[in-house]
Amino acid sequence: MKITTGPVGWWRRMFAFLYELLLLIAVVLLAGGISQGVFQLLTGLPVTALTGHLVASTLHFIWVMSVAFAYCAWCWRGGQTLAMRTWRICLVKSDGSSLGWREVAIRFSVVTLCTLPCAPFWIFARHHADLRIVAWLLTGLFFLPFLWALLDKERRFLHDRLAGTQLLIAPPRV
């Protein structure tokens, strides 16, 4: 695939991110549903009992994160997710080559560390006022990659800078 030399604009990346978030939520919900179904089949307990089992909850979390990683790795190693195709964005290493496992792992780890903790703490903060400051700090962490892109000289997100990747404009499909 031929790629133009220009980097992707901030707004195009934001819209692609929002679209990607919708797709990833669907993938995670499907993986979670499968995990819950297996739990129910193996234990005979209702799905609500999953939270009461530390081992089952841990395995559920590992499974869902593994599926999310597999989805991202499969798409990123190919250069584009469905959202990236829609918004004509291509993900490559800084030298223009395809991503390897190292870049995928770094990118996924940084994105996960910045985004994953935010939602649960806001849920807890609704019921525990003393956790609101933590929720606000984690919200800042959530926005860190986007703010980083505004300050970065090449306008890369934090996860792209750390992984040595970049987003470029892809040519229109014919």
Automatic annotation (TrEMBL):
UniProt KW keywords: Cell membrane, Membrane, Transmembrane, Transmembrane helix
Cellular component, GO annotation: plasma membrane
Topology within the bilayer: Multi-pass membrane protein
Pfam families documented for this protein: RDD (PF06271)
Compartments in which it is found: Cell membrane
InterPro entries per UniProt: Pra-immunoreactive, RDD
UniProt organism field: Iodobacter ciconiae
Domain RDD: 8-164
The protein, known as: RDD family protein
